[in-house]
Design a protein that fits this description.
The protein is an alpha/beta fold. 42% of the residues lie in helices and 7% in strands. The protein contains 11 helices and 4 strands. It has a 4-stranded parallel beta sheet with strand order 2-1-3-4, with helices on both faces. The model has no long low-confidence stretch (mean pLDDT 90).
Length: 230
């Protein structure tokens, strides 16, 4: 009796090979980012007052990217982005639970500055370090062409992804969200759509109350787009 032969493994398709190559390239890029010390070793700049701890979550399958500003003190300590009350509010805006939000296969999180920038004289967070985005962002986003929806949280992310609107305030951009969210508005992913958002901090409660259309019109549209990609 002839022994049965095991089925052959189907050869990898070109698409599979390309995806595997992109996964390896993205992993290598993330390793370089996690080892980055630009902000404490670059001459002629004010060095970071603490050890760098880059915080980001990326994959080659996520179709949504949350593009924020930089980690705060709590995130710097935990290494987990949006692990604070602002994160609770952001997830509510998106209409997702915590497990979904932290599923890196579905949602990427890419702040403009990967490390906590420190506190200013008034105890507030400093702006993201400029050298961070200059060194890493273009190559990082190029390795994630599958992104379809970008949530631009705060002015630093909005001005980087929407350079032609660099002179506009967050208030103006969020008010113009219908135009901004059309495909082709962002420089990183011309085929994606983007939603400009204020920072989900309690400090923006008065701003939100003064603009009832934000919760009545923008957030339902945002949740619909998020749901399509989950």
């Amino acid at each position: 009796m002839r022994a049965s032969r095991s089925p052959r493994t189907a050869p990898s398709t070109t698409s599979d090979r390309q995806h595997g190559s992109r996964q390896r390239a993205l992993a290598a890029q993330v390793a370089r980012i996690r080892a980055c010390r630009i902000c404490i070793e670059t001459p002629r700049t004010t060095p970071l007052a603490h050890e760098p701890r880059p915080v980001l979550r990326v994959s080659t399958t996520a179709r949504i990217a949350v593009c924020g500003q930089a980690p705060g003190t709590r995130v710097h300590a935990s290494g987990k982005p949006f692990s604070d009350p602002s994160g609770v509010r952001l997830r509510s805006w998106m209409g997702v639970d915590e497990d979904t939000f932290y599923d890196v296969a579905r949602i990427a999180i890419v702040p403009m500055g990967f490390c906590f920038p420190g506190l200013d004289a008034k105890g507030g967070d400093r702006p993201p370090r400029k050298e961070c985005a200059l060194a890493w962002h273009a190559d990082l986003f190029a390795l994630m062409p599958q992104l379809e929806l970008l949530l631009l949280v705060g002015s630093y992310a909005q001005h980087w992804h929407l350079p032609e609107r660099r002179k506009d305030s967050t208030s103006d951009l969020v008010a113009d969200w219908r135009l901004v969210s059309r495909p082709g508005a962002t420089r990183t992913h011309p085929r994606s759509i983007a939603f400009p958002l204020p920072h989900p901090s309690w400090r923006n409660n008065a701003w939100i109350r003064a603009r009832p259309w934000f919760e009545a019109d923008l957030l339902p549209a945002l949740r619909e787009e998020v749901g399509k990609r989950l």
